[in-house]
Amino acid sequence: xxxxxxxxxxxxxxxxxxxxxxxxxxxxxxxxxxxxxxxxxxxxxxxxxxxxxxxxxxxxxxxxxxxxxxxxxxxxxxxxxxxxxxxxxxxxxxxxxxxxxxxxxxxxxxxxxxxxxxxxxxxxxxxxxxxxxxxxxxxxxxxxxxxxxxxxxxxxxxxxxxxxxxxxxxxxxxxxxxxxxxxxxxxxxxxxxxxxxxxxxxxxxxxxxxxxxxxxxxxxxxxxxxxxxxxxxxxxxxxxxxxxxxxxxxxxxxxxxxxxxxxxxxxxxxxxxxxxxxxxxxxxxxxxxxxxxxxxxxxxxxxxxxxxxxxxxxxxxxxxxxxxxxxxxxxxxxxxxxxxxxxxxxxxx
Amino acid sequence: xxxxxxxxxxxxxxxxxxxxxxxxxxxxxxxxxxxxxxxxxxxxxxxxxxxxxxxxxxxxxxxxxxxxxxxxxxxxxxxxxxxxxxxxxxxxxxxxxxxxxxxxxxxxxxxxxxxxxxxxxxxxxxxxxxxxxxxxxxxxxxxxxxxxxxxxxxxxxxxxxxxxxxxxxxxxxxxxxxxxxxxxxxxxxxxxxxxxxxxxxxxxxxxxxxxxxxxxxxxxxxxxxxxxxxxxxxxxxxxxxxxxxxxxxxxxxxxxxxxxxxxxxxxxxxxxxxxxxxxxxxxxxxxxxxxxxxxxxxxxxxxxxxxxxxxxxxxxxxxxxxxxxxxxxxxxxxxxxxxxxxxxxxxxx
Lengths: 349, 349
Prior knowledge:
Radius of gyration of chain A: 20 Å
Distance between the termini of chain A: 10 Å
Structural class of chain A: alpha/beta
CATH architecture of the largest domain in chain A: Alpha-Beta Complex
Strand content of chain A: 15-25%
Helix content of chain A: 25-40%
CATH topology of the largest domain in chain A: Quinone Oxidoreductase, Chain A, domain 1
Number of helices of chain A: 12
CATH superfamily of the largest domain in chain A: Medium-chain alcohol dehydrogenases, catalytic domain
Oligomer: homodimer
Largest sheet of chain A: 7 strands, mixed
């Protein structure tokens, strides 16, 4: 079978790899219908995080179950399924506590499982899914192909944007600013509006992304950054700032932007994977009573919550995909995102 | 009149100072019935924060209104009043947003006001109260003298412990650990139980403070610290930790203890004034979805919420005072707290 392998900085190849197969009785094998490239995949691509040896890559996919192990009961061959960007049992203490990303028995795509067997990356023709009963969520029947992009966002970016909003505590009638105009930031705009925020400011310098943000319900756009960005955001909210700021980038600058833009007593919801050496400035947080909540998004638990709205068409996050390519063009998919020619690229095996 | 002045490290003197008097029409002058020494007063006392010139000290008091300016309407001479540990208008955007410690027009006891006039410290015979209508909360009638200690805790430590619990989001049926066994930590135990936590672990190595913690509703006590403390706390909660940890100290070690003890997806509520250079470890927080919320406690807003229970006797935080001295013995009050001979000392002018 074919799958994407990263060999080093800006070196993405689609290669023949060993076929996915059932190893544990709790495994399933899924034929990938659609996968995609994540902003966080660009870190090894750009050499920000080093690639020491060729490895499988990708962590977002939807597909059709091809085979299941003897202990799998919740899904069966032929089911259309969504996988979160990690695998989990969905039943341990942490999963039940709403934090399936801290599953006591789970792990990550493209990395060895707890028995040392490599778990496939998602950018390939097939994926072996450990703990399939916990990991996979099946749709009722085979969805229309037009819904595939939106369903695929439930694997990561829509659930992650939603987590930023949930972690901040966005409520009906509240005010929000979103730092980051990548797919996650755009989904955070959508999520904040869905949770009832009356004003949502998208911080974006790119007209194409500003347009998607407005489609997703952003009421205002701020193009400034840094001190000017803080000033512009505060100005929009009586000089003190919005109730909540959603940080969807992961750099020191973006977190600083978020913390300084939030009104005293407000909350930063953050989902940007921390990149670089900066810690959180406790004195600034303390003196202003700005809280920080979030982390690696437990999207497994959000799939069931968001799925009905995606299926009915009332929630359409698939709009973040502005380029679709065959799996064989994965290298071009990375390049397009790296060069900001695309917000997010969907890959079809 | 007499008031306490700190001259330098371990140099506390009660001296004759200029009489408190009305300056602005929004001022009141209050005759202090009881004041006290705060754990944070020990920082300049111990030389941790330098004292560059003699200055007034103390920020917690209850008393009787002696005089009011022409624009004061909410309190009148003869009223028994509680003051929060800062002064505020209780009406600006931030006050209305629940963060009166970020009042757009307020300030701190013992520091110059916005016109440059020194505002009195609380450890004295009288205090000039700026923005008296916003700052002061009067009791219905003159309270029984036995209630004075508990009323005095509403100026700071009870409201601050409550803020730790509120910031963490303590709910009925939840589990909590409290880092810090000073007056604030003990009040945080009381606050967590009051909000319905079913298990509250007090982290304390001092048998006298452990006893107060148990009186305040602590269900368990852990004496270990550091790695052993984290281990002991996690062990008590299925190996993953409690839902909420309340940080009531302000050191790198105590915050580290709090963050590492919280279950994935849980929240640290913190009110310990940050002391030392440590920032918050974002990668640890991100990977475990542990949030951090809190800050300098907006106790003004909590006084009215907690006052009825103090007046009825159902809430008795005054138990944190284990030594009472006349104002003239302020130096001994500081020494007793510094040497841990007392948890918190009440001063009577």
